[in-house]
Write a structure and sequence with these properties.
The chain is of the alpha/beta class. It folds into two domains: about 150 residues, Alpha-Beta Complex (Aspartate Aminotransferase, domain 1), CATH 3.90.1150.10; about 260 residues, Aspartate Aminotransferase, domain 2. It is built from 15 helices and 15 strands. Strand 9 and strand 10 form a beta hairpin. Helix 3 runs antiparallel to helix 11 and helix 12 runs parallel beside helix 15. The protein is globular, with a radius of gyration of 22 Å. The protein binds ligand 7TS. Ligand 7TS binds next to helix 5.
Protein backbone atom coordinates (compact mmCIF):
# COMPACT_ATOMS: atom_id res chain seq x y z
CA UNK A 1 0.00 0.00 0.00
CA UNK A 2 3.00 2.33 0.34
CA UNK A 3 3.21 3.25 -3.31
CA UNK A 4 -0.53 3.93 -3.24
CA UNK A 5 -0.21 6.11 -0.17
CA UNK A 6 2.23 8.54 -1.76
CA UNK A 7 0.08 8.93 -4.86
CA UNK A 8 -2.97 9.23 -2.62
CA UNK A 9 -1.47 12.07 -0.57
CA UNK A 10 -0.53 14.06 -3.66
CA UNK A 11 -3.91 13.55 -5.31
CA UNK A 12 -6.06 14.12 -2.24
CA UNK A 13 -8.77 11.55 -2.88
CA UNK A 14 -10.22 12.12 0.59
CA UNK A 15 -11.15 15.68 -0.22
CA UNK A 16 -12.49 14.60 -3.61
CA UNK A 17 -14.69 11.95 -1.95
CA UNK A 18 -15.98 14.38 0.64
CA UNK A 19 -17.64 16.35 -2.11
CA UNK A 20 -19.92 13.43 -3.01
CA UNK A 21 -22.66 13.07 -0.38
CA UNK A 22 -24.05 9.84 -1.89
CA UNK A 23 -20.77 8.03 -1.18
CA UNK A 24 -21.46 8.26 2.56
CA UNK A 25 -24.24 5.69 2.23
CA UNK A 26 -23.97 2.25 3.77
CA UNK A 27 -26.12 -0.21 1.80
CA UNK A 28 -26.85 -3.37 3.85
CA UNK A 29 -24.71 -1.80 6.59
CA UNK A 30 -21.58 -1.87 4.39
CA UNK A 31 -19.71 1.19 3.07
CA UNK A 32 -20.81 1.90 -0.48
CA UNK A 33 -18.15 0.95 -3.00
CA UNK A 34 -19.38 2.48 -6.23
CA UNK A 35 -17.60 0.93 -9.21
CA UNK A 36 -20.27 1.41 -11.88
CA UNK A 37 -19.03 4.76 -13.08
CA UNK A 38 -19.08 3.86 -16.77
CA UNK A 39 -22.86 3.59 -16.46
CA UNK A 40 -23.09 6.93 -14.68
CA UNK A 41 -21.01 8.95 -12.24
CA UNK A 42 -22.16 10.36 -8.93
CA UNK A 43 -22.62 14.11 -8.43
CA UNK A 44 -20.51 16.43 -6.29
CA UNK A 45 -22.21 18.85 -3.89
CA UNK A 46 -21.25 21.82 -6.08
CA UNK A 47 -23.33 20.43 -8.97
CA UNK A 48 -26.31 19.78 -6.69
CA UNK A 49 -25.94 23.29 -5.25
CA UNK A 50 -25.67 24.93 -8.68
CA UNK A 51 -28.92 23.27 -9.77
CA UNK A 52 -30.72 24.13 -6.53
CA UNK A 53 -29.52 27.71 -6.76
CA UNK A 54 -30.67 27.89 -10.34
CA UNK A 55 -34.18 26.72 -9.45
CA UNK A 56 -34.27 28.80 -6.26
CA UNK A 57 -33.16 32.11 -7.71
CA UNK A 58 -32.80 32.11 -11.49
CA UNK A 59 -35.28 29.80 -13.19
CA UNK A 60 -37.27 31.06 -16.13
CA UNK A 61 -37.46 30.12 -19.81
CA UNK A 62 -34.47 31.03 -21.95
CA UNK A 63 -34.16 33.12 -25.11
CA UNK A 64 -37.77 34.30 -24.82
CA UNK A 65 -39.14 36.72 -22.25
CA UNK A 66 -37.54 40.12 -21.89
CA UNK A 67 -37.63 40.15 -18.12
CA UNK A 68 -35.19 39.90 -15.26
CA UNK A 69 -35.37 36.15 -14.63
CA UNK A 70 -35.45 35.22 -18.29
CA UNK A 71 -32.30 37.20 -18.90
CA UNK A 72 -30.58 35.60 -15.92
CA UNK A 73 -31.64 32.10 -16.99
CA UNK A 74 -30.42 32.77 -20.53
CA UNK A 75 -27.10 34.06 -19.20
CA UNK A 76 -26.67 30.98 -16.97
CA UNK A 77 -27.54 28.62 -19.82
CA UNK A 78 -25.21 30.33 -22.29
CA UNK A 79 -22.45 30.53 -19.69
CA UNK A 80 -22.66 26.73 -19.41
CA UNK A 81 -22.16 26.54 -23.18
CA UNK A 82 -19.03 28.67 -22.87
CA UNK A 83 -17.67 26.32 -20.21
CA UNK A 84 -18.28 23.29 -22.47
CA UNK A 85 -16.69 25.14 -25.39
CA UNK A 86 -13.49 25.76 -23.41
CA UNK A 87 -13.49 22.28 -21.84
CA UNK A 88 -13.41 20.52 -25.21
CA UNK A 89 -11.39 23.18 -27.01
CA UNK A 90 -14.04 24.03 -29.61
CA UNK A 91 -13.29 26.94 -31.92
CA UNK A 92 -16.55 28.67 -31.09
CA UNK A 93 -19.65 28.41 -28.90
CA UNK A 94 -21.88 27.99 -31.96
CA UNK A 95 -20.25 24.57 -32.40
CA UNK A 96 -21.62 23.37 -29.06
CA UNK A 97 -25.18 22.01 -29.29
CA UNK A 98 -26.95 20.92 -26.12
CA UNK A 99 -28.78 17.62 -26.51
CA UNK A 100 -30.28 15.07 -24.13
CA UNK A 101 -27.12 12.97 -24.12
CA UNK A 102 -24.79 10.87 -26.23
CA UNK A 103 -27.63 8.81 -27.68
CA UNK A 104 -29.56 11.91 -28.66
CA UNK A 105 -26.46 13.51 -30.19
CA UNK A 106 -25.72 10.47 -32.37
CA UNK A 107 -29.34 10.21 -33.48
CA UNK A 108 -29.20 13.88 -34.44
CA UNK A 109 -26.10 13.41 -36.60
CA UNK A 110 -27.28 10.14 -38.15
CA UNK A 111 -30.71 11.54 -39.03
CA UNK A 112 -29.69 15.04 -40.10
CA UNK A 113 -26.23 14.63 -41.63
CA UNK A 114 -26.81 11.01 -42.64
CA UNK A 115 -30.25 11.65 -44.11
CA UNK A 116 -28.91 14.52 -46.23
CA UNK A 117 -25.62 13.00 -47.32
CA UNK A 118 -25.82 9.20 -47.51
CA UNK A 119 -26.71 7.40 -50.71
CA UNK A 120 -26.99 3.77 -51.80
CA UNK A 121 -23.54 2.17 -51.77
CA UNK A 122 -22.02 4.65 -49.31
CA UNK A 123 -20.30 3.15 -46.30
CA UNK A 124 -20.69 3.98 -42.64
CA UNK A 125 -17.70 2.60 -40.73
CA UNK A 126 -18.24 1.47 -37.12
CA UNK A 127 -16.21 -0.80 -34.87
CA UNK A 128 -17.04 -4.18 -33.36
CA UNK A 129 -17.12 -2.66 -29.87
CA UNK A 130 -19.60 0.16 -30.40
CA UNK A 131 -22.33 0.83 -27.86
CA UNK A 132 -25.81 0.19 -29.26
CA UNK A 133 -26.36 3.94 -29.40
CA UNK A 134 -23.56 4.21 -31.95
CA UNK A 135 -24.97 1.34 -34.02
CA UNK A 136 -28.75 1.54 -34.19
CA UNK A 137 -29.07 5.19 -35.33
CA UNK A 138 -26.73 4.33 -38.23
CA UNK A 139 -28.71 1.21 -39.06
CA UNK A 140 -31.87 3.29 -39.19
CA UNK A 141 -30.37 5.81 -41.61
CA UNK A 142 -28.72 3.02 -43.62
CA UNK A 143 -32.13 1.40 -44.10
CA UNK A 144 -33.57 4.72 -45.30
CA UNK A 145 -30.73 5.63 -47.65
CA UNK A 146 -29.31 2.33 -48.88
CA UNK A 147 -25.94 3.01 -47.26
CA UNK A 148 -24.06 0.05 -45.76
CA UNK A 149 -22.45 -0.54 -42.41
CA UNK A 150 -18.82 -1.65 -42.54
CA UNK A 151 -17.37 -2.92 -39.32
CA UNK A 152 -13.79 -2.61 -38.09
CA UNK A 153 -12.96 -6.15 -36.94
CA UNK A 154 -10.97 -7.13 -33.88
CA UNK A 155 -8.08 -9.57 -34.00
CA UNK A 156 -8.99 -13.13 -33.03
CA UNK A 157 -7.54 -12.56 -29.54
CA UNK A 158 -9.81 -9.53 -29.10
CA UNK A 159 -7.09 -6.95 -29.58
CA UNK A 160 -7.48 -3.85 -31.71
CA UNK A 161 -5.41 -3.51 -34.84
CA UNK A 162 -4.97 -0.02 -36.22
CA UNK A 163 -4.01 -1.46 -39.62
CA UNK A 164 -7.28 -3.35 -39.82
CA UNK A 165 -9.15 -0.21 -38.81
CA UNK A 166 -7.44 1.82 -41.53
CA UNK A 167 -8.10 -0.93 -44.09
CA UNK A 168 -11.81 -0.82 -43.30
CA UNK A 169 -11.97 2.81 -44.44
CA UNK A 170 -12.32 2.96 -48.22
CA UNK A 171 -13.06 5.45 -50.98
CA UNK A 172 -16.75 4.70 -50.39
CA UNK A 173 -16.64 5.57 -46.70
CA UNK A 174 -18.65 8.70 -45.90
CA UNK A 175 -18.45 8.64 -42.13
CA UNK A 176 -16.50 6.81 -39.44
CA UNK A 177 -18.40 6.69 -36.13
CA UNK A 178 -16.30 5.19 -33.37
CA UNK A 179 -15.93 5.23 -29.59
CA UNK A 180 -13.04 7.31 -28.27
CA UNK A 181 -12.92 4.85 -25.35
CA UNK A 182 -14.74 1.49 -25.37
CA UNK A 183 -17.22 1.05 -22.51
CA UNK A 184 -16.39 -2.67 -22.31
CA UNK A 185 -12.74 -3.03 -23.34
CA UNK A 186 -11.61 0.24 -21.77
CA UNK A 187 -9.52 0.57 -24.92
CA UNK A 188 -8.40 4.10 -25.73
CA UNK A 189 -8.81 4.02 -29.49
CA UNK A 190 -5.89 5.47 -31.49
CA UNK A 191 -8.24 7.92 -33.14
CA UNK A 192 -5.65 10.29 -34.63
CA UNK A 193 -4.63 7.92 -37.42
CA UNK A 194 -8.26 6.94 -38.05
CA UNK A 195 -9.30 10.58 -38.39
CA UNK A 196 -6.40 11.24 -40.74
CA UNK A 197 -7.29 8.28 -42.97
CA UNK A 198 -10.99 9.17 -42.97
CA UNK A 199 -10.22 12.70 -44.06
CA UNK A 200 -7.91 11.42 -46.79
CA UNK A 201 -10.87 9.65 -48.39
CA UNK A 202 -13.19 12.60 -47.78
CA UNK A 203 -15.13 10.97 -44.93
CA UNK A 204 -16.20 12.63 -41.70
CA UNK A 205 -15.50 11.28 -38.21
CA UNK A 206 -17.83 11.15 -35.23
CA UNK A 207 -16.17 10.30 -31.92
CA UNK A 208 -18.41 8.84 -29.23
CA UNK A 209 -16.81 10.40 -26.18
CA UNK A 210 -19.25 8.99 -23.60
CA UNK A 211 -16.46 7.04 -21.87
CA UNK A 212 -13.64 9.46 -22.61
CA UNK A 213 -14.91 12.81 -21.46
CA UNK A 214 -14.40 12.18 -17.72
CA UNK A 215 -11.11 10.32 -18.12
CA UNK A 216 -9.00 11.77 -20.94
CA UNK A 217 -8.26 15.32 -21.92
CA UNK A 218 -10.33 16.11 -25.00
CA UNK A 219 -9.37 18.81 -27.48
CA UNK A 220 -11.64 18.64 -30.49
CA UNK A 221 -9.51 21.01 -32.57
CA UNK A 222 -6.37 18.98 -31.96
CA UNK A 223 -8.27 15.78 -32.67
CA UNK A 224 -9.69 17.38 -35.81
CA UNK A 225 -12.82 15.21 -35.50
CA UNK A 226 -15.94 16.50 -37.23
CA UNK A 227 -18.30 15.56 -34.41
CA UNK A 228 -17.69 14.78 -30.74
CA UNK A 229 -20.54 13.63 -28.51
CA UNK A 230 -20.91 12.95 -24.80
CA UNK A 231 -23.38 12.77 -21.90
CA UNK A 232 -23.35 15.08 -18.89
CA UNK A 233 -24.18 12.32 -16.43
CA UNK A 234 -20.96 10.42 -17.15
CA UNK A 235 -18.83 13.42 -16.21
CA UNK A 236 -20.30 14.26 -12.76
CA UNK A 237 -23.16 16.27 -14.28
CA UNK A 238 -26.90 15.64 -14.32
CA UNK A 239 -28.87 13.25 -16.51
CA UNK A 240 -30.94 14.61 -19.38
CA UNK A 241 -28.17 16.72 -20.92
CA UNK A 242 -25.41 16.03 -23.36
CA UNK A 243 -23.37 17.70 -26.02
CA UNK A 244 -22.97 17.50 -29.74
CA UNK A 245 -19.85 19.28 -30.88
CA UNK A 246 -19.66 19.75 -34.63
CA UNK A 247 -17.34 21.72 -36.86
CA UNK A 248 -19.14 24.90 -37.77
CA UNK A 249 -19.16 24.37 -41.54
CA UNK A 250 -20.51 20.84 -41.15
CA UNK A 251 -23.27 21.90 -38.75
CA UNK A 252 -24.14 24.81 -41.05
CA UNK A 253 -24.59 22.42 -43.94
CA UNK A 254 -26.94 20.09 -42.03
CA UNK A 255 -30.74 20.34 -42.10
CA UNK A 256 -32.60 20.71 -38.78
CA UNK A 257 -33.27 17.54 -36.81
CA UNK A 258 -36.32 18.40 -34.72
CA UNK A 259 -38.66 21.28 -35.42
CA UNK A 260 -40.16 23.55 -32.80
CA UNK A 261 -39.63 26.71 -30.81
CA UNK A 262 -36.22 28.38 -30.66
CA UNK A 263 -34.85 26.64 -33.74
CA UNK A 264 -36.61 29.01 -36.14
CA UNK A 265 -36.07 32.52 -37.42
CA UNK A 266 -39.45 33.00 -39.10
CA UNK A 267 -42.41 30.68 -39.49
CA UNK A 268 -45.26 30.95 -41.96
CA UNK A 269 -47.47 28.10 -43.07
CA UNK A 270 -45.78 28.26 -46.44
CA UNK A 271 -42.17 28.37 -45.36
CA UNK A 272 -39.94 28.41 -42.30
CA UNK A 273 -36.44 29.77 -42.01
CA UNK A 274 -34.13 28.48 -39.34
CA UNK A 275 -32.16 30.01 -36.53
CA UNK A 276 -28.38 30.33 -36.42
CA UNK A 277 -26.14 27.73 -34.84
CA UNK A 278 -26.32 26.25 -32.32
CA UNK A 279 -30.04 27.06 -31.87
CA UNK A 280 -30.99 25.48 -35.20
CA UNK A 281 -30.51 22.13 -33.44
CA UNK A 282 -32.09 23.05 -30.09
CA UNK A 283 -35.83 22.82 -30.64
CA UNK A 284 -38.08 23.49 -27.65
CA UNK A 285 -37.27 24.44 -24.08
CA UNK A 286 -33.82 23.02 -23.40
CA UNK A 287 -32.65 21.31 -20.20
CA UNK A 288 -31.63 24.59 -18.55
CA UNK A 289 -30.89 23.51 -14.98
CA UNK A 290 -29.10 20.49 -16.39
CA UNK A 291 -26.88 22.70 -18.55
CA UNK A 292 -26.04 24.77 -15.48
CA UNK A 293 -25.24 21.55 -13.59
CA UNK A 294 -23.08 20.27 -16.44
CA UNK A 295 -21.14 23.54 -16.57
CA UNK A 296 -20.48 23.27 -12.85
CA UNK A 297 -19.47 19.59 -13.24
CA UNK A 298 -16.87 20.48 -15.86
CA UNK A 299 -15.52 23.21 -13.57
CA UNK A 300 -15.31 20.57 -10.84
CA UNK A 301 -13.19 18.37 -13.15
CA UNK A 302 -10.98 21.35 -13.99
CA UNK A 303 -10.56 22.13 -10.29
CA UNK A 304 -8.91 18.73 -9.81
CA UNK A 305 -7.30 18.64 -13.26
CA UNK A 306 -8.12 16.05 -15.93
CA UNK A 307 -4.46 14.91 -16.08
CA UNK A 308 -4.47 14.32 -12.32
CA UNK A 309 -7.70 12.35 -12.60
CA UNK A 310 -6.31 10.36 -15.52
CA UNK A 311 -3.18 9.49 -13.58
CA UNK A 312 -5.09 8.56 -10.43
CA UNK A 313 -7.53 6.36 -12.31
CA UNK A 314 -4.61 4.82 -14.20
CA UNK A 315 -3.17 3.63 -10.86
CA UNK A 316 -6.54 2.21 -9.81
CA UNK A 317 -6.98 0.36 -13.09
CA UNK A 318 -3.45 -1.02 -13.00
CA UNK A 319 -4.01 -2.22 -9.43
CA UNK A 320 -7.38 -3.75 -10.34
CA UNK A 321 -5.91 -5.51 -13.39
CA UNK A 322 -2.99 -6.92 -11.40
CA UNK A 323 -5.28 -8.25 -8.66
CA UNK A 324 -7.70 -9.79 -11.16
CA UNK A 325 -4.86 -11.44 -13.09
CA UNK A 326 -3.95 -13.37 -9.95
CA UNK A 327 -7.35 -15.04 -9.74
CA UNK A 328 -7.60 -18.37 -11.49
CA UNK A 329 -10.19 -18.62 -14.24
CA UNK A 330 -10.59 -14.86 -14.62
CA UNK A 331 -10.16 -13.50 -18.13
CA UNK A 332 -9.87 -9.75 -18.64
CA UNK A 333 -11.33 -8.38 -21.85
CA UNK A 334 -9.41 -5.68 -23.66
CA UNK A 335 -5.85 -4.43 -23.81
CA UNK A 336 -3.22 -4.59 -21.06
CA UNK A 337 -2.22 -0.97 -21.72
CA UNK A 338 -3.94 2.02 -23.34
CA UNK A 339 -6.90 1.46 -21.09
CA UNK A 340 -9.10 4.05 -19.43
CA UNK A 341 -11.17 3.61 -16.26
CA UNK A 342 -12.85 0.31 -17.20
CA UNK A 343 -11.98 -3.35 -16.54
CA UNK A 344 -14.38 -6.00 -17.86
CA UNK A 345 -13.83 -9.67 -17.16
CA UNK A 346 -15.37 -13.10 -17.33
CA UNK A 347 -15.02 -15.76 -14.65
CA UNK A 348 -14.97 -19.34 -15.84
CA UNK A 349 -18.10 -21.23 -14.86
CA UNK A 350 -19.77 -18.34 -13.05
CA UNK A 351 -22.49 -16.04 -14.36
CA UNK A 352 -21.79 -12.29 -14.12
CA UNK A 353 -25.26 -11.65 -12.70
CA UNK A 354 -24.56 -13.99 -9.77
CA UNK A 355 -21.34 -12.10 -9.08
CA UNK A 356 -23.11 -8.73 -9.19
CA UNK A 357 -25.88 -9.96 -6.89
CA UNK A 358 -23.46 -11.32 -4.29
CA UNK A 359 -21.12 -8.30 -4.42
CA UNK A 360 -24.10 -5.99 -4.10
CA UNK A 361 -24.71 -7.46 -0.63
CA UNK A 362 -21.18 -6.36 0.27
CA UNK A 363 -22.06 -2.80 -0.73
CA UNK A 364 -20.24 -3.06 -4.05
CA UNK A 365 -21.85 -1.64 -7.18
CA UNK A 366 -20.49 -3.24 -10.33
CA UNK A 367 -22.10 -3.94 -13.65
CA UNK A 368 -23.00 -7.28 -15.14
CA UNK A 369 -24.51 -7.73 -18.56
CA UNK A 370 -23.91 -7.05 -22.23
CA UNK A 371 -23.16 -3.37 -21.54
CA UNK A 372 -25.23 -2.41 -24.59
CA UNK A 373 -22.52 -3.93 -26.78
CA UNK A 374 -24.12 -7.19 -27.93
CA UNK A 375 -22.08 -7.46 -31.15
CA UNK A 376 -18.92 -7.38 -29.00
CA UNK A 377 -20.35 -10.04 -26.66
CA UNK A 378 -21.11 -12.14 -29.78
CA UNK A 379 -17.51 -11.68 -30.93
CA UNK A 380 -16.26 -13.09 -27.62
CA UNK A 381 -19.02 -15.76 -27.69
CA UNK A 382 -20.27 -14.68 -24.29
CA UNK A 383 -23.69 -13.44 -23.19
CA UNK A 384 -22.41 -11.06 -20.57
CA UNK A 385 -19.38 -9.90 -18.61
CA UNK A 386 -18.67 -8.23 -15.28
CA UNK A 387 -17.24 -4.73 -15.18
CA UNK A 388 -15.51 -2.53 -12.62
CA UNK A 389 -15.28 1.10 -13.68
CA UNK A 390 -13.65 3.85 -11.66
CA UNK A 391 -13.99 7.58 -11.21
CA UNK A 392 -12.04 10.38 -9.54
CA UNK A 393 -13.37 9.48 -6.08
CA UNK A 394 -12.47 5.78 -5.97
CA UNK A 395 -9.64 4.56 -3.78
CA UNK A 396 -7.08 1.72 -3.83
CA UNK A 397 -8.76 0.39 -0.67
CA UNK A 398 -12.05 0.09 -2.53
CA UNK A 399 -10.40 -1.79 -5.37
CA UNK A 400 -8.75 -4.18 -2.93
CA UNK A 401 -12.01 -4.69 -1.03
CA UNK A 402 -13.97 -5.31 -4.25
CA UNK A 403 -11.50 -7.79 -5.72
CA UNK A 404 -11.22 -9.65 -2.40
CA UNK A 405 -15.02 -9.86 -2.27
CA UNK A 406 -14.98 -11.18 -5.83
CA UNK A 407 -12.48 -13.87 -4.88
CA UNK A 408 -14.64 -14.98 -1.96
CA UNK A 409 -17.70 -14.95 -4.17
CA UNK A 410 -15.98 -17.17 -6.77
CA UNK A 411 -14.92 -19.63 -4.07
CA UNK A 412 -18.53 -19.76 -2.90
CA UNK A 413 -20.00 -20.21 -6.40
CA UNK A 414 -17.48 -22.74 -7.63
N1 LIG B 1 -21.68 5.38 -25.98
C1 LIG B 1 -20.91 4.78 -25.08
C2 LIG B 1 -19.50 4.42 -25.42
C3 LIG B 1 -21.43 4.50 -23.81
O1 LIG B 1 -20.66 3.90 -22.91
C4 LIG B 1 -22.77 4.87 -23.52
C5 LIG B 1 -23.42 4.52 -22.20
C6 LIG B 1 -23.51 5.53 -24.49
C7 LIG B 1 -22.94 5.75 -25.72
C8 LIG B 1 -24.91 5.99 -24.25
O2 LIG B 1 -24.93 7.06 -23.36
P1 LIG B 1 -26.30 7.69 -22.89
O3 LIG B 1 -25.91 8.64 -21.81
O4 LIG B 1 -26.89 8.39 -24.07
O5 LIG B 1 -27.16 6.57 -22.41
N2 LIG B 1 -22.83 3.42 -21.58
C9 LIG B 1 -23.35 2.74 -20.52
C10 LIG B 1 -22.66 1.69 -19.94
O6 LIG B 1 -21.55 1.30 -20.29
N3 LIG B 1 -23.42 1.18 -18.94
O7 LIG B 1 -24.54 1.89 -18.86
C11 LIG B 1 -24.51 2.85 -19.85
Amino acid sequence: MNSHSSVQTAYGVTSVRQQFPILQQTPYGKPLVYLDNAATTQKPQCVLDAMTEYYTTIHSNVHRGIHYLSERATAAFEHARDIVCRFIGAAGREEVVFTRGTTDSINLVAASWGGANLRAGDQIVLSTFEHHSNIVPWQLVAQRTGAELRIIPLESDGSFSLDRALDTITERTRIVAIAHVSNVLGLIVPVDAIIERAHEVGALVLLDGAQAIAHCGVDVQKLDCDFYVFSGHKVYGPTGIGVLYGKRAVLESMPPYQGGGDMIRRVTFERTTYNDLPYKFEAGTPPIAEAVGLGRALEFVQSIGIEQIEQWEGHLIEQCTQLLERIEGVRILGPRTDRAAVVSFVCEGVHPHDIATILDREGIALRAGHHCAQPLMDFFSIAASSRFSVAAYNTPEEIEYAVRALEQCLTLLR
